[in-house]
Structures are given as structure tokens and as C-alpha cells.
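Input.
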Amino acid sequence: MGHPSSVQGYLQPRKNHKSRRILPKPGCHKLGEATRLGRDGLDSQALVTQTGELGRQVRGQDGLRVAVVDDHDLFRTGLRTLLEEHGVDVVGEAPDGSEAVDVVTSLAPDVVLMDLNMPGMDGIEATRRITKALPLTRVLILTISDEDGDVMDAILAGACGYLLKDSSIDDLLRGIQAASVGESLVSPYIAAKVLQRIRSSASLSEARATMHAELSDREIQVLKLIASGMDNAGIARTLSISPKTVKNHTSNILIKLQIDNRIQAAVYAVRSGIA
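Output.
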């Protein structure tokens, strides 16, 4: 029997299937459809790829290491099993934000899958501390919460993607792959809520004035294309420049606007009224 298509569905009881406890690997610390912001823009088109291909892409990352943070033991165990079946190296787990900060700081994984609502320190504060301590470790939110406040708080805390637990397995693997190379993945419903929230509450004139004061004309062009969902290769083709030049412009944008990642750049573009 094939696996269910969603992350949550994977954890549902299956006929003639006995649950099993996944023990940590040697050296592993044991702790108790999506919208792509293709390096990173707000795009409403879901990406579809075969699960096997996605597994190969994740395995293709040299030593890609993932940590799982969730207060539900069953979900952590099922998620770990799912990821390991697709070639993802799960190096650590944590049941709450405080333990997550300690373990992630110690292990420095490439990607952290982070729940939000947990006892003690929540996922927002844990994300903030992890991204501050380890800027190269990407945090991908995986939660049941679609509340506006949680979404915005997670983005501002430094999360580079936001997926709901009813996302497909393909999308979860795509999210991990995207996060590992500095791209972002957001559930379509969440992306729509973010756009609506920003457009209804943002001070366009102030954001636009700051953008024009800080960025060159070319950087503004790049920022606009990032917000449209175009990746570096697409931006390079559109502007007739090299991908390396696009990457340099993107780095300058993040530095000048004092933002942490490309999903925040896309949000800033919307707030400024250029997207």
C-alpha cells in the first residue's frame, strides 16, 4: 500500500501496520501544495514534482541535515520515519522551543522543521533565537496554525518558509530542499493571507520612500522580480545579467533594508507597493 499524500495522513493508523519507535542514529541527540517564493517571491502557483524525484534532490544535497521540533511524540516519530524514507538525515529532535535552541545550537543542522504551539518556549521565540545564533541554519515552520499573527510573527522572527501540516509530502520535501539553498516555500492559503494582511495594514508611502532612498534602480528591479516569484535564473534572463550578479544584488538588498531573508524581502516589496 502506498503512503498517504499528506504529512498528517502519513500519521493516521493504517491497516495491518504496527507503529514502531525510531531510535536515534549514532551521534544523533535524542530529545524527548505549496507556493514557492523562489529565492523568494510571493507566487501563487504550486510546484508539482514526483515524490521520488524530490527525495533524490534532497539526497543530492551534500550532507543535508535536518532537525525536527514538535511537542507531539507520535508526529515527530512519523515525520522522522517519513523523512528518512526519502533520504533525509534527521540528526536531532526536540519537544519544545527551549530544548530546540540548545540542540540546534549544538548540532547546527541545515534545516529545522519547527512547530509553533508548544509548552514553554514557543516556536516563534525559538526561531528568533536560532536564526540569530545560527544565520546559516534555515527554519521552516510546519504547523497547524494559519492565524495571521502566527504567520507574520514567524516571518519576522526569521523563518524562511511556512507550511501547514496538511501539506503534501511532496511539498514538505520541496520545502526542505528550498530552505537548504536559501529559497522559501509557503502554503498557498498562507501566502494569500500574508499578502492581504500586508496590503491592508502597511504604510506604503513610508516603505516606498525607504526603498528608493536605500536601493539602486537595478536593485529595485531585482526586488520586484523576487516578489513576483521569479528565481535567480529567471531574474538573470529577464534583466540580461548573470545569476551571480543577481545573487550579489539580492545580498545588497537584504543588507540595505536590514532584513534577514528573501521571504522578508518579498514582504517588503509588497509593503512598498511595487508588488
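Residues 20-195 form a domain with the Rossmann fold fold (CATH 3.40.50.2300).
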